[in-house]
Amino acid sequence: MPEIVVYATDLHGEIHAYERLFEVGAGKNVKAVILGGDITPFLTAVGDIALYQREFLEYYFIPKIKDFKKKAGKEIFVMMGNDDLRINEDVLQKAAKKGMFKLINQHAHKLGSKFIAGYSYVNETPFLLKDWEKPDDKMKKDLNALAKKSDPKRTIYSTHAPPLGTGLDVIFSGTHVGSSAIRDFILKHQPYLTLHGHIHESYQMSGNWREALGKTICVNPGKHNILVFDLNDLKTMEITGI
Fold first, then answer.
1. For the chain, domain boundaries
2. What's the whole-number mean pLDDT along residues 204-218?
3. Average pLDDT of 136-162?
4. Predicted pLDDT at 42
5. Where are the alpha helices (DSSP H) in 26-111?
6. Handedness of CA 72, 78, 84, 90 (dihedral sign)
7. CA angle at 204 for the pair 213 and 172, rounded to the nearest 5°
8. pLDDT value at position 45?
9. In terms of DSSP H, where are the helices of the chain?
10. Do 65 and 101 contact (CB within 8 A), yes or no?
11. Which end of the chain has fewer CB atoms within 10 angstroms, the N or the C?
């Protein structure tokens, strides 16, 4: 029997995107839903941005997941991204302790016959928010530590940043802005699968939402797509629009 996994990233608090995600996530044979970061609204609200994101988590995100889990009974894995203010991480931690979902940033959890592990940090950007930024040399140390928490060959890694120099990290100017640390990690450990986000327009610019680095399939579905794949047969993976 297929074990379907549904992945989305960079939803940025868009209600219609969440509704579509959980509609797909409730489908037959779906085992798990993975949220790959940037889960809260963009940092464009007037006033207290931290409070704005916190209220989204408390009054929409957490209740929505609670309702979805009650009705659909799927596993849910969550991580923050570089646009999610870290001061609100405690909201997610409290919900995770209640069993609503599992937090995957720098942690590994069982997912069927495989593992799922996450990494929220991105390489340095020109943006003002630095909660989830690190230089590539420090990211490299974190990723090597994460590799010790499960067998990489049997692990799906959700790293918010994509690997450098691929079709998954291209911005509107045509420049590659991904992480060299993530690329090196993938080439060194050859994980079962890697999932990425952060660069919304990369699929639009390069035409590629999946690419191989060695034997590892790497995917960045972009901001407005949902990735659907069989945990045991990556040849069947596809993306569907939000």
1. 4-241
2. 97
3. 98
4. 83
5. 49-56, 62-72, 89-97
6. positive
7. 95
8. 58
9. 15-25, 49-56, 62-72, 89-97, 136-147, 180-189, 202-206
10. yes
11. N
* Sign (positive or negative) of CA dihedral 212, 36, 6, 172: negative
Q: pLDDT tens for residues 225-241?
A: 999 999 999 999 999 99
Q: How far apart are CA 12 and CA 56, in angstroms?
A: 10
Kindly report the number of other CB atoms within 10 A of residue 14's CB atom: 16
Residue 68: which of 21, 134, 114 has the closest Cα? 21
Residue 73, classified by CB atoms within 10 Å of its CB into exposed (0-12), middle (13-18) or buried (19+), is exposed
| Token pair listed for 208 | 């590629």
Is 168 within 8 Å of 191 (Cβ atoms)? no
| Cα 106 to Cα 118: distance, rounded to the nearest angstrom | 5
Lowest mean pLDDT across 3-7, 46-50, 56-60, 209-213: 46-50
How many Cβ atoms are within 10 Å of 199's Cβ, its own excluded? Answer: 26
> Which CATH number, 3.40.50.2300, 2.60.120.200, 2.60.40.10, 3.60.21.10, labels domain 4-241?
3.60.21.10
Strand, helix or coil for residue 225? strand
E-only strand ranges, the chain: 4-8, 30-36, 75-79, 102-103, 108-111, 114-119, 155-159, 193-195, 210-213, 216-219, 225-230, 233-241
What pLDDT is recorded for position 126?
Answer: 84
What does each C-alpha distance from 126 to 57, 129, 130, 165, 225 come to in angstroms? 26, 9, 10, 18, 25
